[in-house]
Amino acid sequence: MSETYSRNAGVATNYGLKVLEISHANTAFAFDLFAHLLGSGSASEVLTLSTERARKAFDQNKELWELGQRLATDMRGQVKKHVDRALHHAA
Predict the structure, then answer these.
(1) CA 62 → CA 3, 16, 22, 57, distances in Å?
(2) Is residue 41 helix, strand or coil?
C-alpha cells in the first residue's frame, strides 16, 4: 500500500502544482486586463485579450481534467492490484 500512496502522491503533487500555476496565471491576467481597461483606446483590444485568455483557460482546465483522470485511474489500478493480491493470499 505504501507503493500506492507514494505513486499517487506524485500525481497529486503535479495536480496541485498545476492548480497553483493556473491560479498565478489567472491573477496575472486579471491585473493585465485591468491595466488594459485603464489604458485601452478600444473595446476590441479588451475583447481580443479576453478571448485569448478564455482559450488559454480552456486548455488549462483540460490539463487539470487529464491529470485528475490519471490520478483516479492510477489510484484505482493500484488499489485493485492490492485487493486482488490480498484476496488471493486469503484463498
Answers:
(1) 28, 15, 12, 8
(2) coil
- Decide which of 17 and 50 is more confident: 17
Q: How many angstroms separate the CA atoms of 31 and 47, rounded?
A: 15
Q: What percent of the chain has pLDDT over 70?
A: 95
Question: Cell triple for residue 76?
Answer: 484505482
C-alpha distances in angstroms, 12 versus 1, 19, 70? 16, 11, 10
Confidence of residue 1 (pLDDT cuts 50, 70, 90): low
- CA separation for the pair 51, 45 (Å, rounded): 10
